């Protein structure tokens, strides 16, 4: 494995430090017993982080855990506060025009991050009476990415599915689409029991594997990529994890430019870069609101002022299917199907021992992508797994694919949203993680390690050019996916 670049963060050295297996939330407590949010989704190491916390307890503590490998512990305790005075802050507020749930909480504490290494953090809130715990996620982002693989936290997608206060971008008070939010705010906690958004199941397992391998890493959020045009300059690769659905046009532009200049791109999920969003400020700060009107885009005041529509990238009035960036196109939901290997001799499959036609039950789901050359698709592109699926009565396929571009970049997409979750699968006939078993875990870990090692060394297409094989899998020609 290549050493960390000069002046870069030494991932291997950091992970030799002692971990703390007691980092998890084991006592979520009653609803609203303790919860909070960070005033910024990411900061540079050394910059302060304001926290806004609400609790029914008289006092609480904050523990900062840096997430990684750490010999299997998965986290290191970097800092812990003493007892802080607790208070119950005001209930959620609903902005009528967009049905946006937000808060007007006051700052509870300002954390100083001097000496904290860059990376993905979970700040754990613990009531002093021991009755409740909850996470607040935050990224200590990298100032530069030259020579490093950039791991991107999908914070806009986390927020899109955050129903704290009763509404997200899918449904609201009535439980139906018509009551959903048209914009969602970062100025609120995450609703799930642990408070970490989608980080723990869609991102943390791959972060742990990458840090275990010692790949030179950089850390950022999708909002950082969108609003820092030079951030990806010199990066060797970018990693999109699990569920990375909501992108702004600026994020897509900056990733596309870096890819075309030779930065590798790996999509370890499905439904990536599907929804087009706009970031707007909130009273707390810039880029604290995610706007996505979807099919109601014509009602979006920003679009009426001439801004891009906040609907699906593939849809009019500004159609730009995600396949032009990723090589694959989102196809459907929901599915649960075996993952079927079609090219066991590909370098991606090295060390797996798989045979042609070998399958891994439940690995395709719950959303999936496929190659669809009826839409803009980088060529040459190789399909390395071609998995039959039935989605809402319709027979189609999920594809894992590898493409190479003239600038030298390699692009790999798994075609299934369960890939990152499968990295932690263990044992026979697994019942957790959708029934994924140890075979699926070993397979996905090996393929992922192959991708990370090759992509971290520079433009993969120069040494491993793709050999187009689409016609072998779709001999009748491509059929457009629904809605494409």
Description:
- The chain has two domains: 11-235 and 275-304, Macroglobulin (MG2) domain (Immunoglobulin-like, Sandwich); 323-473, no CATH class.
- 17% of the residues lie in helices and 29% in strands.
- The strands form seven sheets. The protein has a seven-stranded mixed beta sheet with strand order 14-12-15-17-25-24-23, sandwiched between helices. Strands 2, 4, 5, 6, 10 and 11 form a six-stranded mixed beta sheet that branches.
- The protein starts with 10 loop residues before the first helix and ends in an 11-residue tail after the last helix.
- The longest helix is centred in the C-terminal third of the chain and has 18 residues, at 438-455.
- The protein has helices at 11-15, 155-160, 199-202, 204-213, 222-227, 249-260, 301-304, 323-326, 419-422, 438-455, 460-463, 470-473; strands at 34-38, 42-43, 49-55, 59-67, 75-80, 84-85, 93-95, 100-102, 109-111, 119-127, 133-140, 149-153, 183-185, 217-221, 237-242, 246-247, 264-269, 275-276, 278-280, 289-291, 329-340, 359-370, 381-391, 394-404, 410-413.
- By secondary structure, it is α/β, with parallel strands linked by helices.
- The radius of gyration is 22 Å and the shape is globular.
């Amino acid at each position: 494995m290549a050493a960390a670049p000069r002046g870069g963060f030494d991932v291997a050295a950091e992970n030799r430090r002692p971990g703390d297996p007691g980092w998890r939330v084991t006592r979520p407590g009653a609803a609203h017993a303790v919860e909070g949010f960070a005033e910024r989704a990411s900061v540079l190491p050394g910059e302060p982080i304001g926290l806004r916390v609400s609790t029914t307890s008289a006092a609480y503590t904050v523990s900062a855990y840096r997430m990684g490998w750490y010999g299997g512990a998965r986290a290191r305790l970097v800092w812990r506060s003493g007892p802080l005075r607790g208070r119950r802050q005001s209930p959620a507020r609903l902005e009528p025009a967009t049905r946006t749930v937000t808060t007007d909480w006051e700052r509870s504490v300002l954390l100083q991050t001097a000496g904290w290494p860059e990376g993905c953090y979970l700040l754990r809130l613990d009531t002093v009476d021991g009755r409740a715990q909850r996470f607040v996620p935050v990224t200590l982002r990298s100032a530069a990415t030259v020579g490093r693989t950039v791991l991107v936290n999908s914070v806009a997608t986390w927020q899109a599915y955050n129903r704290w206060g009763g509404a997200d971008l899918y449904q609201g008070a009535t439980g139906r689409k018509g009551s959903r939010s048209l914009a969602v705010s970062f100025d609120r906690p995450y609703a799930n029991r642990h408070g970490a958004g989608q980080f723990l199941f869609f991102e943390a397992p791959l972060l742990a594997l990458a840090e275990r391998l010692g790949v030179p890493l950089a850390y950022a959020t999708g909002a950082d990529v969108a609003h820092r045009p030079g951030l990806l300059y010199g990066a060797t690769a970018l990693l999109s994890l699990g569920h990375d659905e909501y992108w702004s046009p600026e994020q897509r532009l900056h990733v596309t430019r870096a890819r075309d200049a030779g930065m590798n791109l790996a999509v370890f999920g499905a439904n990536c870069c599907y929804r087009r969003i706009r970031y707007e400020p909130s009273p707390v700060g810039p880029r604290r609101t995610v706007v996505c009107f979807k099919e109601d885009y014509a009602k979006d005041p920003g679009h009426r002022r001439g801004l891009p529509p906040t609907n699906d990238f593939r849809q009019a009035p500004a159609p730009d299917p995600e396949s032009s960036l990723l090589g694959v196109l989102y196809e459907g939901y929901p599915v649960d199907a075996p993952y079927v290997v079609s090219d066991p001799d590909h370098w991606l499959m090295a060390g797996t021992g798989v045979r042609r036609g070998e399958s891994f039950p439940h690995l395709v789901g719950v959303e999936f992508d496929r190659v669809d050359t009826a839409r803009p698709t980088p060529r040459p592109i190789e399909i390395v797994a071609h998995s039959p699926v039935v989605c809402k009565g319709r027979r189609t396929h999920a594809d894992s694919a590898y493409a190479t571009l003239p600038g030298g970049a390699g692009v790999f997409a798994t075609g299934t949203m369960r890939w990152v979750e499968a990295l932690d699968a263990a044992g026979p006939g697994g019942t957790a993680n959708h029934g994924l078993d140890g075979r699926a875990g070993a397979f996905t870990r090996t393929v992922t390690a192959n991708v990370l090692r090759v992509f971290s060394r520079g433009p993969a297409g120069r040494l491993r050019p793709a050999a187009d094989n689409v016609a072998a899998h779709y001999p009748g020609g491509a059929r457009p996916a629904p809605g494409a």
